[in-house]
Specification:
Chains A, B: InterPro entries: Aminoacid_DH-like_N_sf, NAD(P)-bd_dom_sf, THF_DH/CycHdrlase, THF_DH/CycHdrlase_cat_dom, THF_DH/CycHdrlase_CS, THF_DH/CycHdrlase_NAD-bd_dom. 2 copies of one chain form a homodimer. With 307 residues, chain A is α/β, with parallel strands linked by helices. Chain A has 12 helices and 10 strands. Chain A starts with 5 loop residues before the first helix and ends in a 5-residue tail after the last helix.
């Protein structure tokens, strides 16, 4: 049971505790404790790399401007670096920076031997071109996995640096022994950050994959047949209990903030009654994403994931 | 009607003529005449490029060894170059060539200003690494669209050089005014050459996309619901009439040779009775693929598709 011990319960938010009845609690995928496990692995790998080869993995985050949400995300990543022993640098550039200056900055980081991962926090201020900036990142330092070169390798089944959120979902499936091959996986949302790379990873693992989104005519028809359901749309409680079948495994990648509270894309309180396993929001996919980012920086520093 | 004129009927193979009853003939997507249309466009583009900028598009094909099927495919591509005014070079390398020699050869072609497209005919002899060789091709000369950089741009919706067969299918849909957005498109087969890029293109165009393959547990469940069905498995007559719904649009990308005859993945003779539109084999998707390759070489020469 994920929260049977006092230590375990630390990782479950009050919101989740409040709504999950005791009989369903074993169905919750505890993203915080999985993330902790991944971070422990990374920490050991970092220590070994320092001891054996004298290399300290380094991550440079680039934040342009002062957007509060972006600042918070960058802070969370720096904290994870601290926990895992990764050297983290905060490159906070002024909102007034030009495209050329931003690219020159990225190119300098590409050349630095002590920086193994580069993370460009999005969104950028409107006058900057995020696609072009992303392209400037050395694919071998692309810890976020968004560079077309890495995305293409993902599509053809050579998964190296891949987007962290869907990789976190895959890791959670592995941890829970969920079979993917031959299962019907339904992905709701077709963004470049979640839906499309998630679909590619599931296809690479031989799931039958259906990709649904805002243009899908009868969403329920697909979700009702899903063995595995991954939802990333940003629509609060889009997925209701009557839209899933008994025994489904649900990953909720959505986040909606409303009146200081955070909601997922899944009506957790009711869907859990039919699900075999389900991630809460918060405390599910979010923490996993950051731990995978740490894993990528370690991979880059070890040179096991050359692009 | 596609074969109402003597000229039109030249493009329909005898096999197809034999089995298609007159009442169904308007349902056949005539790949040869569509390919001819695309080639005419390319030819005009090539003439304009020569006249306006003095540039003749150039394609170099690389064939390693003497595989008869590969030789035939290369020959077909050279003939298409002739028809469209593209300069074609046949680089037939000995089967004994080393990986280093092959890559050096590709790198020389990368540097040549008169060569805009490079096509490495697969499969390579066993002692050579095809993935590594493919990576050596300048993504900006990757007429086949298989380079990870181009595959990644495809996945994130920046379609430049993309695999020619699925692009031919999309063009055929456009020519026939087939709506993609909101439709349920089922792709059978998840190869890197057809299934996965096809799925990505359909997702980019807002279809609900299901990807099925050899691990799918109940194929019929998916195909029966398809508005658009693309099949590329190499399994002769995998798709029977009872597996599709009335009004489906079918693209058959499969080719099986048996006793000197060529078969598709779809039981054409029976499926056509339920289909709104369907491609035959031969004379369907195959000719389209080559015409798209010509389009890519022109795009590369014009510099409209820089990688």
């Amino acid at each position: 049971m994920w929260n049977s011990s006092a230590a375990g319960s630390l990782y479950i938010s009050k919101e989740v505790k409040g709504v999950v009845e005791e009989e369903y609690s074993s169905r919750v995928i505890d993203g915080r404790s999985l993330a902790k496990k991944v971070e422990e692995e990374v920490k050991k790998g970092v220590e070994a790399l320092k001891a054996e080869r004298g290399i300290t993995p380094g991550l440079a985050t680039i934040l342009v401007g002062e957007d509060p949400a972006s600042k918070m995300y960058v802070r969370l990543k720096h904290k994870a670096c601290e926990r895992t022993g990764i050297h983290a640098e905060d490159h906070n550039l002024p909102a007034s920076i030009s495209q050329e200056e931003l690219i020159a900055h990225i190119q300098q980081l590409n050349l630095r031997k002590d920086i193994h991962g580069i993370l460009l926090q999005l969104p950028l201020p409107r006058h900057l071109n995020d696609k072009e900036a992303m392209l400037a990142i050395d694919p071998g330092k692309d810890a976020d996995g968004f560079h077309p070169y890495n995305m293409g390798n993902l599509l053809i089944g050579n998964e190296g640096f891949v987007p962290c959120t869907p990789k976190g979902v895959i890791r959670a499936m592995e941890e829970h022994g969920i079979q993917i091959q031959g299962k019907h996986a339904v992905v709701v949302g077709h963004s470049n950050v979640v839906g499309k790379p998630m679909a590619a990873m599931l296809i690479n693992r031989n799931a039958t994959v259906s990709v649904c989104h805002v243009f899908t005519q009868d969403l329920k028809q697909y979700t009702l047949d899903a063995d595995i359901l991954v939802v990333g749309t940003g629509v609060k409680h889009l997925i209701k209990a009557e839209m899933v079948k008994e025994g489904v495994v649900v990953f909720d990648v959505g986040i909606t903030e409303e009146d200081g509270k955070v909601y997922g894309d899944v009506d957790f309180e009711n869907v859990i009654k039919k699900a075999a396993l389900i991630t809460p929001v918060p405390g599910g996919v979010g923490p996993m994403t950051i731990s995978i980012l740490m894993q990528h920086v370690l991979m880059a520093a070890k040179g096991t994931c050359k692009a």
